Amino acid sequence: MIKNPYTVNLDPESGKIEGAKLTIRRLSDMADLYLEGKEVSLSSGVDPIIYEIYECSHPSLEGDMNFGTTVMRPGKVGKEFYMTKGHFHSKLHTGELYQGLKGIGLLLLQNQDKEFKCLKLSEGTLAYIPPGWAHRSVNIGEGPFIYFFIYPADAGHDYESIMKMGGFCKIVVEDQGKIKIQDNPRFKA
Ligand code: PAN
Ligand code: ZN
After folding, report:
1. Ligand 1 contact, 120 CB (< 6 A)
2. What is the 135 CA–ligand 1 centroid distance (Å)?
3. Which domains occur in the chain, in start order?
4. Which residues are bridge partners to 26 per DSSP?
5. pLDDT tens per residue, the chain (189 residues)?
6. Of the ligands numbered here, which is closest to the C-alpha atom of 159?
7. Whole-angstrom Cα distance, residue 117 to residue 65?
8. 44 CA distance to ligand 2 centroid (A)?
9. Residues flanking ion ligand 2, Cβ below 5 Å
10. Which atom of ligand 1 is the closest one to the Cα of 159?
11. Ligand nearest to the CA of 134
């Protein structure tokens, strides 16, 4: 397939990318991943948007790239801050780059040896995600947390492995007004 170079406009305030495909993730799409996800979603009767993804994706061919933005709302489910589902890339040897555009968030990273890292992202921070590291973002601020991402178009997303493990080994919670990174009691090593 012949592809032409192009430009698109990214509004750094809203995170919206003109013409990009929009995916919306609500609590019901990921209630299992939060400790109190099911109780909160059933009892409140509302299904809040946790984050939106604006993605310019291309054919899953080696050498091509996908890029876009993730716009995370602020909030908590029980004590846990709003987070993304999190994934390994299906092709484990593919990495990714994130750039913080607005707000403040944590990037949780975990590899297949269960090593864990946590990086802080805010406007202007570049975060390199090496091949082999599963990644999940957490909005720890009071406003939206927005970041840009770019990764190989043939990487694929493996959410299943994260679900099977009960999430990442750590969770990010508010405890007595403080942000804490705690062991995830549902994590199956
Ligand atoms: C990002 C993420 C995005 C949402 O584009 O897909 O931030 O996270 P989930 O895919 O875990 O819901 C990325 O890392 N792509 O590979
Ligand atoms: Zn990724």
Report:
1. no
2. 8
3. 21-183 (2.60.120.10)
4. 49
5. 557 999 999 999 999 999 999 999 999 999 999 999 888 876 777 899 999 999 999 989 899 999 999 999 999 999 999 999 999 999 999 999 999 999 999 999 999 999 999 999 999 999 999 999 999 999 999 999 999 999 999 999 999 999 999 999 999 999 999 999 999 999 997
6. 1
7. 25
8. 31
9. 96
10. 11
11. 2
Out of 94, 149, 150, mutate this one to test ligand 1's pocket (max ligand atoms within 8 Å of CB): namely 149
Position in ligand 1 atom list of the atom nearest CA 155: 16
State whether residue 64 is helix, strand or coil: coil
Pick the closest to residue 143 from 97, 186, 100, 108 (CA basis): 100
Centre of ligand 1 to C-alpha 98, Å, is: 10
Query: How many Cα neighbours within 13 Å face the side chain of 156?
Result: 9
pLDDT at 42: 66
**Whole-model pTM over 0.90:** yes
Helical H segments across the chain, by residue range: 37-44, 160-165
Q: Retrieve residue 22's tokens.
A: 């929009």
At residue 43, the pLDDT reads 75
